[in-house]
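Hey, can you fold this one?
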Amino acid sequence: MNKEEFISSGLLELYATGIASPEEVQMVEEYLARFPELKKDLNEIEISLESYAQANAIQPSSSVKEKVFSRVFPEVAKEENEITPVVPFRKKTTFPPFYKLMAAASFILLIGSVVLNYSYYEKYNDAKDQLGIAQQKIEQQGKSNLAMSNDLSIMTNKYALPVVLNGTPNAPDALAKIFWMKNTGQVYVDPTNLPRVPDGKQYQLWAIVDGKPEDAGMITTSKGTYHIQKMKSFGKVEAFAITLEKTGGSPTPTMSEMIVSAKM
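Sure. Predicted structure:
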């Protein structure tokens, strides 16, 4: 791992408290030799742990100290019991100062706090993701409602002349509807009941004017969502038809691919 990953691994903290395994100690010392600037981080950690331990330390009674040391350092306690003191003052032992025990306990609490914070962070991210999904659904619903409102306004327009296009032998169950505005010549198509479009194909609307087919526009059926769509305008029309063409349309209708048609 690189220097940043090593710093975030927590090995320096374990090393500072003296509870790192021999393998971890060896790794820390290798990184300290490779990156001398890490010694400054180690020094800051040691100072922080010592300051915290001293600030929160409670002076235990001698009996409590002896019980703690006998549990943590049984060899030292055994040696002390076997030595008969010959001077009135206590001999200084070689076990770590008591504050280091407090520092180790503080470090364990710190790790627990980090785990708890990470758990809350994960829950926050999950809630944030759920909120994003809900907002997307609301936005999609809003677009759907707007499209339905537009459809309704066209169908109920007093100038709209509805024309039903019935299926041909190519698609006997197919159905489409045209709304031709008598006052403006605007043309709208409702492709809701047309069959699903195969890949590479697209529906194209044709208007029969003076006996000739004229391109009235391509019908959008992307993502399987069909809504009333505005097409090209015509002042007069004899009939309408919809054919299945290659994506992008054709200059002339493919009669063998006619899906629906109707006369005005």
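The radius of gyration is 41 Å. Let me know if you want another pass with a different chain boundary.
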